[in-house]
């Protein structure tokens, strides 16, 4: 990092993570004015449910050259290369959060850098605010993959502080603004194939129950069908590969799990979590397919992982989740933990039967060609190759250190 | 441990953990015959639902002197001193198991040793088998508290291998055996105020769904009421102390949580877990009140624990759970972890509102005088005492090491 | 943190950590000019070897009111309340560094805040630069103890970038500057009773051996006496309390260990460590007494700590060291770990005999009334209370899970 | 593990780990008598310094068929595949022990199983006693690699309790016994290319200094040369590959490090460690080359590993060391940790200059093509690509959670 830092130079060509919505449209225009720079837009279909091709038209209408507009379907890469590694770890941040947003940002950031290399851009930009986690997930990825990149984070640079000012800027610069954007600010939300999140507004009082309109992907358990849905998930080496006997692509499989989970009221979460910047925030998360996936994965692991493997994974999971949540996807320690986790998944093959019912994911059965469960050994009625006298030695040797210690701590003899 | 080990001497006076059922009655008689020793029985009311005074009559009918029969109500001690410390840790073994059995055995073992000291007994005995975890939970506790104690574990000593032989022994020695004990062996079960477990029989094939009669404490979600139940739990320094504004003793509070949880289908678990002796076993666990308790505790922690506290607890939880599960309650490393955990609970005070509905425990709100949640800081629309430019420095300094590494790993410049 | 942040207001009364040297004298003067504020100086005797009373005269000569000059001997508090907790943990950052500087900054910061409360100051200031760790150790402590405090870090605020500019500022404002400060900048150094550090100049090439003048507290091993020095250290509950049978105050004991260590060439360290801000830096550290202390402490622990205690401490030590190194002394997770560590020290009482010789700290013997070492048990020739057949059961049960796994992994039978 | 366990059947063909010394010769003869079985001997040259071909003659003289005698030089495999992985982890058990013995047993066990498969043996045997760790290191490896193998551990089976009885047995069965074996029992020792250990006799009082004859591989620091020896070690991807510019095989390199370390009094260790069976034992260990190796490896890591990598390794090292020490080399969790560790070593390439002097291993310099040390960034006098104002944001954001907490914990405002 010799000489003058990129951060102090004027950006010439910027790859912007562009949704086509109000915020990133304003950002696009603001950068054109502020930096007089060439803009490249990147829009990914991550399963968020919007029409991504609309973003192409929007970009061109804002003066972006057609060859500078990139629109890609990344759904399979998202599931196979970002969600699946995290589910192999059974990762849940602060006990519950399945990290639908944290897994998606690094993928977008990686593609932005790849596109920057391809088109000769010197800068990248994103629309995340200065109080949240997403700025970290974007920028730590940018810097890890391209240490000399110039990063533009407009929300931390400009003086606009809220939606009203954005609308005013848009009006002033001839951007069309939908009527729905003009009223009170909506919930803040992020969506992709793994989840939908919802923050802000009335949710900001953590004592108050969420209103119904804060949930968008799942039905309430009370409104789910009165009869359960059964599903059988097949795993190969730690990843789900088939539902009810039908092999599917990663994105298709998760989409289908989302459908049946959402219909059965599965995967709602209402938590206060702690952002990397130190703030606590209350959020709602809907992860119907992911919730089923995690239960099924832990279940197939329960018969295919040895105790040494399973417990080591459990001990390291919180650290792994923290790294992913905080934006350290491309940090070497995340990769080291991933190597450890993936090593354990070689025998995690088999199938799990589940019953979904009004918010519940109920395990019904599990089976594997690699099962470590041994019915003959465990039975109460007969010995098999297990000599109960061995247990006496096992206990007495394990107790030895406690007995030595007990002599010091409990001076009085028994009788 | 000088001279001859106690283990090779004849026991003279034995304190037996005695339920009054078939197994421990046979054990009592067998020890009288085998060792010609004086027997002291200890029966604890742990909330298992049996009439403990019946055990007194049974013991006396088997020839135990009245002054050698100890019957005690330990429900409050169980909840306050064994369950509560574990729930402060949010402990779950192998992801899910709330350890209803592991918390109860050390309490019984401790009282056996205390009684042994009081009555001048040299030995203790229990009815756990040689394949399970409970032998460890009893005996590691015995040895830690009384290093020189003589331990008798009849299931590892005698030649009887199953129920039929026990019944034959009972018949041969004039013990009355209920008709229900004479047929096929039932499920193996353990119950106390925290949970009921169920293993064996058809459950031994982990692919097969449990039959309805394997569940005994909770209703199925499908059979629970169609309207939710709301409950408000108040915590002081990490422990629940009141429900819906009414202060209760630890045992009364858990009993009440059990009632409302059980009625709403909450707390069923069907897992394969790995015993300390290395076997995998499929078990059903019903922990209605405990399931509510854990969700509520995590929720009140989510606004009262700093990230540093919460994440450290999460990282150490699997090790703590493993120690408790394996029987190391009285090991010094469990006590060290408990000191760390308890230190974190000083500010964990406040209340949580929950909705129970057909198996779901749904968080509705949380509130605390010690809340670290700051609505002014987190709001999207206004700054408060948070300067978004600080985030730039935060990110750039955190990225510095990744950028240095990136120069080595990604040799090509961006443009 | 309502309303306007302190950070944007003009400081009125500032407590400065003041050594009396060039840097903090320039800071004092610069703050008087820049902020037109009242200055309070705080100078601590931490065993750095300077005459602290000279700082009093210097402060008064710079216009500080006598009642605003605080000079205190904190040597015993430094050793008893900051070094000792860290040595109970056997903490070493990145394998070797005994953290002489990280333990001292929080103590100074804490006293600054206490003085600020006493004199009604609104701000605190320190002389640490913007690239190092010490700014974090000062400021994280300030903010933890007084969340609303105004922090002044002149090295990050002014435009002066090196020694020459400081000297020019001093000359311009009539500060006397010693001749030795006018030449090439010296090593950067920090000293207290626990250590002396040395960075900068020729050391900045990590391939080059340090020159002799970079070491200041210890003799080179080659120049140490040809005959060893023997010393016996007595510990009570984890802390050293006597040398060669003579009880001493914490500071006196460490001073004496420093003398004999330094004379025998003990405690030199030459490492590259990673600062919290992400830079790697090469430093020399001389910790003669601390090096002896750590060896002695580990040695007395080796016979008084149970394996469960010792291994848990070892697993958590790197995290504890990282927290202390990074400046999180007053963070709740450091306090949680300390509670765990201190819990383990209750029985760490006894004595250790050491031989010091030309850089070596050689253990000769260890003894404790609480020893868990049992000569009768361990002897090769006789059994004691250890039945070797128990080992068979211990091994076979521990092997069970490996055998179950081996059936899956090694399909071929042996014969 | 169906049907009858191997452990209860008569062994027909046994592969014995055979040194040719008194103990294993008695074992060979005892098994011939006791089990009337065919014996296969396996003797490995691990650098222990004995003439391994003598073991061949001894075996044949005891009636073993020539085709049943296996003698192999495993020195390179020992260093490359067992020592090197452990040194990549910087593993030290209980703070100091470099595990010379634990790394060698699994290699011998693995070869015994391979030979058993090759010759059609059903059993394996070793000469480790029932109180030590080595029985675990042998047997856990046997069972992991061949779950159905029959294990014979004569020391736990026969009634002979000490050396005198072994000599009597040898005399009675016509085994020649050297005069040196007839007196008082010697120290118990284990040697290979990595270390020599020494236990027993006068060492059993941990307060008493070792006698000179307890050390066998190194000179005392006092007797080492008065002038230092300099050495330069080159690492490739975490492993040493050349000394002073000369490439060497793994065994040759470690041999050479042993020579120069031993001559300079490097690598003596006198500790009490805790065996897996729970006993504490005092032992002397001489690891001259290994001691240099570990210092050099940590030093090259200090400039090539990112903080995230280095700290994660440090946190996991104690668990890794415990697994290796306890005999879990072939357990899947050791392999998972190894995958994580090895992942971090990809860039650990470069060289380290050391000075060896009377027991000291002194770092003089380190250099790497992959260095993360950046002289321009770290310098005190000039900025480079580091904006000190970023540090303000870094600190303030890191402090945010502490300030929020401080408002709860420190209610009083500053002024």
UniProtKB/TrEMBL annotation, chains A, B, C, D:
InterPro entries: Arginosuc_syn_C, Arginosuc_syn_N, Arginosuc_synth, Arginosuc_synth_CS, Arginosuc_synth_type_1_subfam, AS_cat/multimer_dom_body, Rossmann-like_a/b/a_fold. It is found in: Cytoplasm. Pfam families: Arginosuc_syn_C, Arginosuc_synth. Residues 187-403 form the Arginosuccinate synthase C-terminal domain. Keywords: Amino-acid biosynthesis, Arginine biosynthesis, ATP-binding, Cytoplasm, Ligase, Nucleotide-binding. L-citrulline binds at residues 97, 133, 137, 188, 197. PANTHER family: ARGININOSUCCINATE SYNTHASE. Homotetramer. HAMAP family: Arg_succ_synth_type1 (MF_00005). This is Argininosuccinate synthase. The gene is argG.
